[in-house]
Amino acid sequence: MSELTVLQWLFFAVVVFVSYAIRGSTGFGGVTVPLLALIMSVKTVAPMVTVLGILSSGMILRNDYRHIAWAPLRQLLPWCGLGVGLGVYLFANLDSETLGNALGIFAIGYGAHSMWRTITPAPDRRLPMKVITPLAGSVGGFVGSLFGASAGMFFAMYLDLLKLPKIEFRATVAAVLVGLGVMRGAGYLWAGAFDREALVVCAAALPAMALGVWAGNHLHTNLDEIKFKRFVAVVLILSGVPLLLR
């Protein structure tokens, strides 16, 4: 990582801090991968985010583990494993440029969708939960492993349908992401993704991640949900464009 400039390292630290402040406040979210992919390879960022995701979710659950809703957790994780298997296989066999372009498309598409949902509420659920559960689990596992991006949005949408109270919602999303992170980590280890560069970047990110989660824990009760969602949507759209133009 010696090719990064001082300004790029500063950008790295700010992105990690803000992303994990978001995660600390909601239990999911963050824009780590699309933004850091602007200055380094997705194949370096994805393993790093996996390790940080396990640690940050563990920090959230240190106090909130009693509030986990275990039934949806048990239903989701097997389907996550299916998605992780396919995602890691493609991650190992696609080059960094292709992954970056795909991540750009994903970031723009999801950002636009998120913005639209802050203007037009989602329609009432029409599919039964027995269909939604495997979709949320497998798609979340696939996207999370292929891009290293946070898959929490898929699980958040799923848990929102269950009308969980705020504290149970945050704890359960964090627990799902711990399970997903362990499966992703095992897959990346199999694919040889934890090379020296990924480990160095992971170590460098730890202080900013810890500070971000601490800040997020203190902010989560005062979040303006609509403004937060719109901010994340705009950042995703703006970060996706340069990934496509690289």
Structure described in brief:
The chain is mainly α and about 250 residues long.
The major pleated sheet works out as:
none
Query: Span from first to last CA?
Result: 19 Å
Secondary-structure element series: HHHHHHHHHH
| DSSP summary: helix tally | 10
Beta-strand segment tally: 0
Q: Helicity, in percent? A: over 70%
Query: What is the molecular shape?
Result: globular
Quote the average pLDDT: 80
The value of Rg in angstroms is 17 Å
Protein architecture, described:
By secondary structure, the chain is an all-alpha fold. Helix content is 80%, strand content 0%. It has one domain (6-245). It has helices spanning 6-26, 32-36, 42-64, 70-93, 96-119, 129-147, 152-161, 166-191, 196-219, 225-245. The longest helix has 26 residues, at 166-191.
Quickly list its features:
246 residues, mainly alpha
Helices and strands in order:
Blueprint: H1 6-26, H2 32-36, H3 42-64, H4 70-93, H5 96-119, H6 129-147, H7 152-161, H8 166-191, H9 196-219, H10 225-245
Helix pairs in contact: 1-9, 3-8, 3-9, 4-6, 4-8, 5-10, 6-7, 7-8
